[in-house]
Amino acid sequence: MNIFLFLLPFSALFLSGSSIIDGFPANSFDTLSLVSVITRFPNGNTNVCGGVLIGPSIAMTAAHCVFSNDEFALTAKVTLGDVYLSKQEDREQEFRSHAMAISKQFLNGVSEANDDVAIVFLPKRADVCESSISPQIAKLPSTWSLNFKETPSIPSQFQLENSVCWIAGWGKTENTTASHSDTVRQMTVKLSIRRIGRRKYLMARGVLGTSRTCMGDSGSPVYCFIDGKRTLIGTVAHIGSFVKMSQQDPSNHLQFCRDFEYTFISDWRESSERIMEILEKYGELEQLNEGQDMCFGSGKL
């Protein structure tokens, strides 16, 4: 399978590979489409990230989770229904993949959260949506690119900024030197649209003031209740300081995750174009609609 290459351009303002500090044990109903993504690289290093199932055999995560130091990961272990990283549980569905693709927009060398998306193609279809409590595909805000004649029904800025939203993952729970959390944790967040120069960013900040994402939460899904349904809004791209970005200060003296007040989100409303492009290239675009029909069609969840 061909793959897009890019030169990882993250500035020193961000901690890539970004458990959740001052979070709480994840609610299983809120994380039915969450997957863990553990990648192994040629140099022997491994990355722990989150991800989300968006099609029967398609997982989405952050691009920098599968590409590091100018190399793609050799393998990605994707586990649906994962709770404890250190042990296998009965309800887990584990997949090992060598097929990964990333947004070609990274080729331009610009570090944009909405470009930090990757697809991991699973070797077989996951068993999903068998009941209201079984693993499922994430409910997407829209699959608008499949039908260009219709206006997409996507969350508005008002909806995003006034909805109950949360992030779940296995990232570090203390600081950059701590171990990754063995159990999946989540934090409630408030979303906002912030402008830095000419660019707008979708950002998340913990409702509990001390809550933070940290190393290992990259690629983790961001969900909101939209029209009463748990809806995927995007994935964690990186963490950073809005103040430092606003000042265009390139210093890298912030050593602890607690110093980074915002989580920068790869916003589905923007990043879906990148995802559609990848899936269309490999003939898998229809999986998005198929997955939504399987799990959320008439009479479903």
From TrEMBL:
Keywords: Hydrolase, Protease, Serine protease, Signal. It comes from the Eukaryota. GO terms for cellular component: extracellular space. Residues 1-23 form the signal peptide. Residues 20-274 form the Peptidase S1 domain. InterPro entries: Peptidase_S1_PA, Peptidase_S1_PA_chymotrypsin, Peptidase_S1A, Serine_Proteases_S1, Trypsin_dom, TRYPSIN_HIS. This is Peptidase S1 domain-containing protein. It comes from Caenorhabditis latens. The lineage of its organism: Eukaryota, Metazoa, Ecdysozoa, Nematoda, Chromadorea.
